[in-house]
Design a protein that fits this description.
Order of helices and strands: HHHEEHEHHEHEEEHEHEHEEH
Helix content: 40-55%
Number of domains: 3
CATH superfamily of the largest domain: Periplasmic binding protein-like II
CATH topology of the largest domain: D-Maltodextrin-Binding Protein, domain 2
Shape: rod-shaped
Low-confidence stretches: none
Radius of gyration: 31 Å
Distance between the termini: 51 Å
Largest sheet: 9 strands, mixed
Mean pLDDT: 91
CATH class of the largest domain: Alpha Beta
CATH architecture of the largest domain: 3-Layer(aba) Sandwich
Number of strands: 11
Strand content: 15-25%
Length: about 290
């Protein structure tokens, strides 16, 4: 396949009076230009020039090739100029664990795209474990998750802490509890692989094995609906996800003695990928937005 450099030299020679003019313009030797043109003709399996005295003149096939290739080359030059002059244009594939996807990303993405109107953000939602797998596989450019990870291929940068709280719609339970006094309640937790679930269960070990888990759901909103419909249910959810229900008196915080449930919101990205200026800009914006 011929190169853009060969096409550029071909067009220059086609319009130049002499080969030395082209050599001076491109700061190349005449022999290097002649070699580039010869390689182009070999790739096309066509002779494009005839030598008349000291000049190279396009033949009938050369004139046809010039008419076809020159508009395309000018378009590519324009694209190159536009692309290199605007580093904050492009498309970013973002992954977010379900808590951040529902309660952080709508405001974050909207405000960033107002700042960078020529950027398109594509969002994929999954639990923390799956987001990390997508980053490893290169399916997304970066991920926003909760909790810790154990992948050697992924770099994790902590943004800000996030609190988990035990909640129920049963007003009579509003008091401090030891966690072992609640193990027989009907617990609804997020699915395996969820950052919310793993942080909570890790904190209450070894009692986690005795917990009466009656439902496992993939959506925080679904868990909240169950809690509100039946006061016998109890769960541990991110405070950010239940702030409205707490204010409206639909759910109540049950403090747990000797336990504080915290995890971190973090950015994760593949260690092997070198971030572009656009990616660095988006990462910096996330840190500023969430702090």
């Amino acid at each position: 396949m011929f190169s853009l450099r060969q096409i550029e030299l071909f067009i220059s020679v086609s319009h130049a009076s002499t080969l030395i003019d082209v050599a001076n313009k491109h700061k190349m030797s005449q022999s290097a230009i002649s070699m580039a043109l010869k390689e182009l003709e070999n790739h096309l399996d066509e002779k494009l020039f005839e030598r008349v005295g000291k000049k190279l003149i396009l033949n009938e096939r050369g004139r046809l090739f010039l008419s076809e290739v020159q508009p395309l080359f000018l378009e590519l030059k324009s694209l190159h100029q536009t692309f290199t002059q605007s580093h904050f244009r492009g498309e970013i594939n973002v992954g977010a664990s379900l808590t951040t996807a529902h309660y952080v990303m709508p405001q974050l993405m909207t405000s960033y795209m107002k700042k960078r109107s020529e950027v398109c953000l594509n969002l994929k939602m999954a639990n923390t474990e799956d987001i990390v797998s997508m980053v490893e596989a290169g399916e997304i450019d970066l991920g926003l998750i909760e909790g810790n990870i154990s992948s050697s291929a992924v770099k994790q940068e902590i943004i800000t802490p996030d609190e988990l709280i035990v909640v129920s719609s049963n007003k009579e339970l509003i008091q401090e509890h030891y966690i072992d006094s609640l193990i027989d309640k009907k617990w609804i937790l997020r699915e395996k692989g969820s950052g919310t679930r793993s942080v909570f269960l890790d904190q209450i070990k070894p009692i986690d094995e005795e917990l009466n888990i009656v439902l496992e759901l993939e959506q925080t909103e679904a868990i909240k609906n169950f809690l509100i419909l039946d006061e016998d249910y109890i769960s541990c959810l991110p405070r950010i996800s239940v702030e409205t229900e707490l204010k409206e008196g639909k759910l109540f915080h049950l403090p747990i003695k000797n336990h504080k449930f915290y995890r971190d919101f973090s950015l994760v990205f593949n260690k092997k990928r070198r971030p572009t200026l656009l990616m660095e800009d988006f990462q910096n914006y996330i840190f500023e937005f969430m702090k």
